Amino acid sequence: MPNPSTRRHDGRKADQLRPITFQPGIAPHAAGSVLASCGRTQVICAVTVEENVPRWMKEQKVLGGWITAEYSMLPYSTLDRKARDITKGRIDGRSTEIQRLIGRSVRAAVDLEALGPRTLCVDCDVLAADGGTRTTAISGVYVALELAVQKLREGGFLKDTAKSPIKTPFAAISVGVVNGQPVLDLDYVEDKDAQTDMNVVMTAKGQFIEVQASGEESTFSPAEFAALIALATKGIKKLSALQKAALT
Predict the structure, then answer these.
(1) Of 191, 106, 117, which Cα lies nearest the Cα of 140?
(2) Which is nearest to 131 in space by CA: 48, 45, 42?
(3) Could you give the CA distance from residue 110 to residue 158 in angstroms, rounded to a whole number?
(4) Residue 161 region by backbone torsions, left for phi larger than 0, else alpha for psi between -120 and 50, else beta
(5) What single DSSP character describes residue 156?
């Protein structure tokens, strides 16, 4: 179990989040947008609306809408410049994995049939990376999604404007075992040396959307897994409160 008296390299307690902020309206041409910051990690999350659906939905006569996601790290987001994917002619495997995670997470929380025959395009661009970019992106996307759906409802674009197609608030956080200690919200220094690394996506009510866990050249016990889940649950509750405050 986490030792509350143990201090981490940046002075935080084992169960303490980094400073987290959500700045809405960062991209004026998007239907909804936010600059999500978690410590020194910063991600612009934006949602745009396209009044059509993918061809496969039309061909298979699938009702409702769709949500797709893209994730990228800007060249100056890391200490050493990261080449743009377009210069390599392909999206790297890590970015592909993360954008699929973001897409799955959002679709799990939205009633796609209630969304109507349209596509919500989610874009996450990392301005600065110091660990937790995927979890910061997912938490920011929820805020941007709420803003976009609010515009759709106010504009009368949804069949039932009195009810949001968003079924539940959601957020994501990282946890891990560092120096034998379960900790919440890993920064880069902790993440690169973690014995166990886990990313948890949950609803505000504590329901799991996705859990990604792996031992980094190590294994982890059921007790450590339970401790990490408890830490993640605590972190998600705090994140949900911050998201709600940003939307009011």
Answers:
(1) 106
(2) 42
(3) 13
(4) alpha
(5) T
pLDDT value of residue 20: 98
Work out the widest C-alpha separation in the chain, in whole angstroms.
59
Helix axes 133-154, 93-108, angle to 10 degrees: 40
pLDDT digits (tens, 9 = 90+) for 156-172: 999 887 889 999 999 99
Question: Which CATH class, in words, describes the domain spanning 20-246?
Answer: alpha beta
- Whether 3 has a pLDDT exceeding 70, the answer reads no
Domain coordinates in residue numbering, the chain? 20-246
Residue 1: the pLDDT is: 57
Output DSSP code: residue 132: -
Query: Which tokens sit at 17?
Result: 């989040």
pLDDT digits (tens, 9 = 90+) for 85-119: 877 777 788 899 999 999 999 999 999 999 999 99
| CA pair distance 109, 242, nearest whole angstrom | 18
Per-residue model confidence (pLDDT) at position 197: 94
CB neighbours of residue 63 within 10 Å: 10
